[in-house]
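fyi for ur records
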Amino acid sequence: MSEPVLVTGAGGFVGSGIVRALVARGVFVHAIQRGRYEALDALEREGKLRIFRGDLADRDAVSRAAEGTRGVFHVAAKAGVWGPYADYYRSNVVGTENVLHACREHAIPKLVLTSTPSVVHAGDDVEGADERTPYAERYETAYPETKAIAEKMVLAENTLAGLSTVALRPHLVWGPGDPHLVPRVLERARRGRLVLPGGGHKRVDATYVDSAVHAHLCAWDRLAPGAACAGRAYFVAQGEPMPLRDLILGIVGAAGLPPVVRSIDPRVAYAAGALLEGTYRALRRSGEPPLTRFVAHQLATAHWFDLSAAKRDLGYEAPVSTAEGLRRLRASLHAP
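which gave:
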């Protein structure tokens, strides 16, 4: 096997896909994890991966995991729309600082960061946006704010201490094994509570999980000192903008559920999100509100991107169409 590569978030949705792809290439993987994942344990037993127990906020733990590697896929992050800012900062900013420190300490030559297009979302429609779109001036939740800080740090580190960096912004990753979008959609569909602001007619360009993984490998293969992609961020998606309603109904249909989606005025949804946020804070309720202002904005606005830069600089093309992704999702949901 070739020199090891470190993958943070190796047990997660996108991270586990990257691990499988690297192992298929014959690459030995280092993974830093707090929890246990049977798939990673199995790879370790097979001698294809080594697990380092630790937290990304622990600089020494990250350093141990990174030692001897030839590059890092920094996928781990605290994602969500609710919770204390300090928790997001610790995971997304401090964790990234520690990854960068490890790269400098061990003279690691390249780093691929998994970011998010939410770093540029200011609440309005994003239609055909390219990478010249500026970062948002303010954020409604801690996740995109802390990811923007992390992305800026990683890109600023490019060329320093011999490190080449690139950031990818896959949008709304979904597919078999998805722990976020798919289960939420199906849970609400089963309860008859699937409601979309404006009826879900604004167009979005989501990312099937295999496409997100493929984009990371494309970036890895192209990243080098002086490469066109070095020090830059790239939007990643399917290249198939469609009404959000169509994607949601495709997921619902894959589960064999009735295609019923109700509509709500976007202004009412935003007001409801604000009210629920205030209620949860005032009552100090645990868990996440069923709707927040950020989610209301995300559901009510268009999100699709110009992928020309990723195609040109990374050689990226989505390897799986949305239609094929839905077929694979259906097969996984109905598997015995």
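The first helix runs from residue 13 to 24. thats all i got for now
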